[in-house]
Amino acid sequence: VQLQASGGGLVQAGDSLRLSCAVSGGTFSSYSVGWFRQAPGNQREWVATIGGGGATTYADSVRGRFTISRDNIRRTLFLQMDSLKPEDTAVYYCNILEFWGQGTLVTVSS
What are the Cα distances from residue 4, in Å, to 48, 100, 103? Predict the structure, then answer.
């Protein structure tokens, strides 16, 4: 299984970004997939998860601002990030089972 994350960039506080994660190999539609992030000097933290049936869960810090979704036909995971804050600055990683993408950097300036 390979995961390729994309969509990061430099934005201002209040802006939006949409991250994508293309998954190749394995059975994508059956498993929960999620996003994690790691800010400089911090441990990696969970952001959001979407189950195979579409149920979603979010960390308190992003609930109401971020939306996780998936396209099982295109085997792609998304993270729509709205109302971004400087504290959202991190490398964002997609995850399925024990597999991780390479990460995409999101930088939010104040």
Answer: 17, 9, 8
* pLDDT, tens digit only, all 110 positions of the chain: 999 999 999 999 999 999 999 999 888 888 999 999 999 999 999 999 999 999 999 999 999 999 999 999 999 999 999 999 999 999 999 999 999 999 999 999 99
Here the tokens at position 21 are: 């994660």
Nearest-angstrom CA–CA distance, 14 and 72: 30
- Indicate the length of the chain as a whole number: 110
64 CB-near residues (< 8 Å, 6+ apart): none
Integer Cα distance of 10 and 13 in angstroms: 10
Pairing of strands 104-109, 90-96: antiparallel
Whose CA is closest to 96, among 41, 45, 24, 43? Answer: 24
| CA Rg value for the chain | 13
